[in-house]
Amino acid sequence: MLQRIKVLLLRAVRASVNAISAARVTWVALVIFLALGYAMYRNPPVKAVARGELGLRLNRLTGTVDEWRDGSVLALPAVHEVRVFSLRDQVYKPADSTRADAAAPFQSVEGLSIGVDVSVRYALDAARLRAVWTRLPDDVGADVVQPAVNSVVYKIFARYTVREIFSGKRAEIQQAIETELAPKLAADGLVLRDVLIGKVDLPADYKRGLDALLAEELASEKMRFTLELKEKRVRESELEAEALRVRREKAAEAAALEQVIAARGQDEAMKHVLPLKQRQIEQRKLEAEADRVANIRRAKGAAQARRIEADGEAKARERLAEAEAYRLQKVGKASAEQMEREGALVSRHPLLIQKTLADKLSDKIQVIIAPPPADSGFIGATLLGAGPKQ
Predict the structure, then answer these.
(1) Which has the higher per-residue pLDDT, 330 or 376?
(2) What is the 3-state secondary structure (H, E, C) of 61-81?
(3) What's the CA gap between 379 and 390, in Å, rounded?
(4) Does residue 19 contact residue 32 with C-beta atoms inside 8 Å?
(5) How much of the chain, in percent, has pLDDT values that exceed 90?
(6) What are the tens digits of pLDDT across the range 162-189?
(7) pLDDT value of residue 390
(8) Highest averaged pLDDT of the listed ranges 60-69, 157-166, 265-274, 355-364
(9) Higher model confidence: residue 119 or residue 30?
(10) Fewest 10 Å CB contacts: which of 28, 85, 139, 364?
């Protein structure tokens, strides 16, 4: 029985040991997996290069260097060393030197503190990056550009006065900075794009003195311009007076010349006008003589016409008188013959006298044929009952 219990206990101990060993293996595997995941997270085996960047991969086993731009590349931990550099333009501005009362202002040749807004635009040189990338720090701007810029800019500003820095020689200072700074950056594989000098902050005391000086200079410039303007006005007045005098002289000369030309023209015109006037007078005389002859001829013609008209009128009146005499003769003959015929007719028909009388009295009197009275009296007496008394 005891032997059996021992066997059972031994089997239980072995089962416990096996269970503990399996749990340890699981935990160890889990720890290893987590460690590998963390290592891959911290050092991913695939590196990506974005647009505008350049990647360099060093193989520690072979010593070869690979370069690539856009895309991804395999980077095994402990085998490859990969660095990605930005090829875009970057700008560095000394922030502690923009104001005269800042932490690190620039110094002029007079020893005055001034603030200058300096901007340095640079970029990595892709052609030389393969040669210098191993010695470039991670922060190129802070570890390479800033010391180089400060060493050059402070030195160059110390060569010039405040007035030259402020206004007169900005372009010269900018060119000097570019000339000295470009080789320093090129030695570290950097390309200097441009150097810009912006606002200049002057010390308060110098600014007040400069304002006063500028005011005096402006006043003197104003006075100089005023004097020049007055001189120009005086000169202008003199020129205007001279021009007026010349214009008057020219006008007088032109008027005299015009009068001379007019007199000459009148003289020349009179030479042509006098013969013309003479010819006009002669022409008028001839015209008057022609009018007189024409009037005489018209008068003679009119007199002759009146004589012809009078002769014609006389002949016409004579002919009219002859015609009237002939007419009267004919009418008389016709009347005599008619009276002769009428007398013969009345002699034969005495009642025609009474009819004719009644016709001439009125057209409204009715004609009554009555026998004539025996005593040959008025026919109306018989009609009225006024016959002769017995």
Answers:
(1) 330
(2) CCCCEEEECCEEEECCCCCEE
(3) 18
(4) no
(5) 0
(6) 878 877 788 888 888 888 888 888 888 8
(7) 42
(8) 157-166
(9) 119
(10) 364
SS (H, E, C) the chain: CHHHHHHHHHHHHHHHHHHHHHHHHHHHHHHHHHHHHHHHHHCCCEEEECCCEEEEEEECCCCCEEEECCEEEECCCCCEEEEEEECCCEEECCHHHCCCCCCCCEECCCCCEEEEEEEEEEEECCCCHHHHHHHCCCCHHHHHHHHHHHHHHHHHHCCCCHHHHHHHCHHHHHHHHHHHHHHHHHHCCEEEEEEEEEEEECCHHHHHHHHHHHHHHHHHHHHHHHHHHHHHHHHHHHHHHHHHHHHHHHHHHHHHHHHHHHHHHHHHHHHHHHHHHHHHHHHHHHHHHHHHHHHHHHHHHHHHHHHHHHHHHHHHHHHHHHHHHHHHHHHHHHHHHHHHHHHHHHHHCCHHHHHHHHHHHCCCCCCCCCCCCCCCCCHHHHHHCCCCCC
